[in-house]
From TrEMBL:
<protein>
    <submittedName>
        <fullName>Reverse transcriptase domain-containing protein</fullName>
    </submittedName>
</protein>
Length: 363
């Protein structure tokens, strides 16, 4: 396929085929080139005794601002031609002429799952485990590879938070930090979806910029530089690229900041949010682009773990600083150890006790 040299050039890199397990996407700079690629795929499949399901295949022909309904064939069968409004789900992500949001159905299913868990006869800690292990991970793939609306995440966050407090017989005005702290310090080990979205944006960028595939790194860097140049109207230096990634609002990046939405603009917003609560930053030098935590470079495989740990460290300090609930948290952390051994009624009693003893303190 690569030897056919029919690929599409993206920022100086020729892209011929994108494949993951049994999902294959072919790209070409011309209609004849794409049909030739399909003919090669047909030849190989026939030789291997494989049969493509043309009914599950689709093509997209982009010609400027138009989307012609060009017909392509695979193993003699016609493929569906996508128009401007069609979205084909490639690896679960909506792909088409326009860039659309993803994860809406997943979020709806997640809410239904939480509702079912809420109405079940499970113990409080079992409900929390179910949400943490089976509900929240459902959206992670879309957060890393797609564009999920933050407003939808906030709505589901609020619903999960309210349910968790009800399971533990806590009033809704009780502090939420304990819901998101790890078990080892007396928390429930959940994570807000909106915060998870910011973390996933950063993690995805780290994996692209540190990929073992040099073509992936080259395309990632070139699209990043294009986004920076679009705003500053000049070729970006390493220093300017670093300022862009670190969400600078000074100099060339002073408001108003107008830019089309991309993974890099979303990364910029995520970085701004995370830098408010943790010591993270981006560094650009001759060795490449690196994520730093406490001035130390972070490997791609460790990025998600370290970012989550930094978020929970921030919450622990925030809760411990509260004059009333912070004191209860300190006692709970030392005496109770794990939420699994903590009866929901006891949690409510602890909260009511500290409110009775310190009625004038706002929490």
């Amino acid at each position: 396929m690569v030897n056919a040299k029919e690929g599409y050039t993206l920022n100086g890199e020729s892209i011929d085929v994108l494949a993951y397990v049994d999902d294959v996407a072919l790209t070409s700079r011309s209609t004849s080139g794409l049909q030739r690629q399909l003919d090669i795929a047909t030849t190989v499949a026939n030789w291997a005794g494989l049969q493509f399901n043309a009914g599950k295949c689709a093509s997209l022909h982009v010609k400027g601002n138009e989307c012609p309904s060009t017909v392509f064939h695979i193993q003699g069968d016609q493929m569906a031609a996508s128009d401007k409004t069609d979205l084909y789900r490639h690896l679960g992500m909506p792909t088409g002429f326009k860039y659309g949001t993803s994860g809406e159905e997943i979020l709806e299913n997640m809410k239904k799952d939480v509702e079912n868990i809420h109405g079940s006869h499970l113990a409080p800690w079992q409900k929390l485990d179910a949400v943490r292990m089976f509900v929240i991970p459902q959206i992670t793939f879309h957060l890393k590879g797609g564009w999920v609306l933050r407003a939808s995440l906030t709505q589901l966050d609020n619903f999960i938070r309210n349910c968790a407090k009800e399971w533990l017989k806590l009033p809704q005005q009780a502090s939420t930090e304990t819901l998101f702290l790890p078990h080892k310090v007396g928390g429930l080990n959940l994570i807000p979806l909106k915060m998870l979205a910011d973390i996933c944006d950063v993690v995805q960028a780290v994996h692209l910029l540190q990929s073992k595939d040099p073509q992936v790194v080259a395309v990632a860097k070139s699209t990043l530089q294009r986004d920076v140049q679009q705003h500053i109207r000049q070729p970006p230096s390493m220093e300017l690229t670093q300022e862009y990634l670190n969400a600078s609002t000074e100099g060339l990046f002073a408001p108003p900041f107008v830019s089309r939405s991309s993974m890099w603009t979303r990364l910029r917003l995520a970085t701004r949010n995370l830098r408010k609560i943790m010591p993270m930053e981006w560094k650009c030098d001759n060795d490449g682009i690196s994520l730093l935590m406490d001035k130390k470079a972070v490997a791609a495989m460790d990025a998600e773990k370290l970012l989550k740990a930094a978020f929970r460290c921030h919450l622990a300090k925030k809760l411990a600083a509260k004059p009333s609930q912070g004191k209860v948290f300190k006692v709970e952390r030392v005496k109770l150890g794990s939420i699994r051994s903590l009866d929901a009624t006891l949690v409510a009693h602890v909260w009511q006790f500290q409110k009775k003893m310190l009625p004038a303190v706002h929490v």
